[in-house]
Amino acid sequence: MEEDPKQALRSAALAARRQLSSSERAEASAQAVTRLLRLPELSGASTVLLFAATRDELDVASAVGPLAARGARTLFPRVRGAELELVAASDLRTLELGYRGIREPVGPSIDVEVVDVALVPGVAFDPHGGRLGHGGGHYDRLLARLPASCARIGVAFSCQVVPAVPREAHDAPVDLVVTEQRVHRSQARAG
After folding, report:
1. What is the pTM of this model?
2. Is residue 190 part of a domain?
3. What gap in Å lies between CA 141 and CA 135, rounded to an integer?
């Protein structure tokens, strides 16, 4: 039986990410956050969705302080069944272990309509806005609910950027992909 192209790519991208040492991940995360904070999309944002990184993911936590200093409110996702709900959090120490051992915020959920910029994790991205997640569809469903004006920014290590991610109708693209090495701007959602 032939292997599903998404699963094959998922396995390869996860293996590439695991090859990075913890110091390489930390350095690349710092470089990517520096690139993120320079983006015009983030300069005037009042509400920014971040995510709590797993051990192997690019960590955007260091963006919370600079975003707060600019007056931006930061949100983090929390899994509720098949959906992600968003909760305000500015202190990562308040996050608790949740779905699949990922740290999640506590408190009341916030309407997705207020999000100006969404930082989105993924297993693999392509320069054209294609995104491959873990296969649960949580982020695809969330991205579909965000306002059209919300900038969707994929965040990953450069080893996770591939020439093309297989896409299906339900797969939601991102507008940019930011790595420690560069910013890829796509036209995936352009009208």
Report:
1. 0.93
2. no
3. 12
Tens-place pLDDT, residues 167-185:
888 888 999 999 999 999 9
Nearest to 25, CA basis, from 35, 17, 14, 16: 17
**Number of compact structural domains in the chain:** 1
CB atoms within 10 A of CB 56: 14
Backbone angles phi, psi at 132, to 5 degrees: -120, 120
Read off the pLDDT of residues 79-134 as tens digits, 9 standing for 90 and up.
999 999 999 999 888 888 888 778 999 999 999 999 999 999 999 999 999 999 98
On whether residue 66 sits in a domain, the answer given is: yes
The CATH number of the domain holding residue 112 is: 3.40.50.10420
